[in-house]
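Moderator note: this is an archived Q&A kept for reference. The question asked for a predicted structure of one protein chain; the sequence and the answer are reproduced below.
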Amino acid sequence: MTPQEAKEILSRYRKNTTDESDPDFTEALQLARANPELSQWLLDQQEFHSTIRRQMQAIEVPRDLQSKILTSLPREPKVTTWRRNEFLALAASIVLILGAALFWTTRSSNEQIDFAGWRSRMVSFALRTYQMDILTNDEKKVRTHLAEKGAPADFEVTPGLAKLPVKGGGRLSWQNRPVAMICYGLPNNETLYMFVIDENSVPGPKPPNQPKIDTDKRLATASWTTKGKVYLMAAATDPNALQNLAP
C-alpha cells in the first residue's frame, strides 16, 4: 500500500468505531505509524473532523429556516415541498464548508514560520513519542537512511551524545523542508530526541552557537546553531542533564 492509497482509505476513517477492526483501515493505520508525514496528515485530518464536529454541534438551526428558503425560491407551476431533513442537510453543508475554510485559515496563520514555530512542532513530535523510520543502534545506518530520504545527515554529534546508545531515527518535514531526527537512549528507558534542520530552511533569527536551555510542557530542550545547521534536543529529563550533553 502506498502513502497516497493510505490517505484515500484514512480519509474515511472514524476513530473509536468499528473502522479499527477493518483490514483496510488496519493496514493503512500501520503505514501511518511508520511514516512521519502520513502520521502528521492523519493527525491533521482528525483535528479537522473534531473541529467541524464541535462547530456543528454548537449550531442551532433556526425554526424559520425552511419557510425563509421556500420564500426565496422562484414560483413555479408545480411547487415541490422539501422535507425538513433536506433543509437541515443543506444548512449543514453550508456550515461544513465555512467551518473547513475557517479551520485551515486559522491553522495556517497560527503556526509561526520561524525558529519558534519549528521548535514547537518538533517538541510536539517528541511529546507524542514519535515513531522512528529505522530502529538501530548503528549511527552510520541512521545517517545513511537520512541521506537517502533527503534529510540532513552530515550533522555533528556532541561528545556527550556520542556516549549515549543510539535507538534509531527518521526523516520529518516542516513547512515542506526536511528535518533529521536521531534518537538516543537515556536512563530509566527515556528517549532523547535530536532534531536537525538546515539553517537556511528556518527564516528569521536562530538560536546562538552557545546552547539555549529551556523547558516546554513536560520536556527540557536545548537548541543551538553551528556550521549551517540548527539543532534541538528534547527529552523528559532534568534541564541540567541536557546542559551536559549540549556542545
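Archived answer notes: The longest strand covers residues 166-174.
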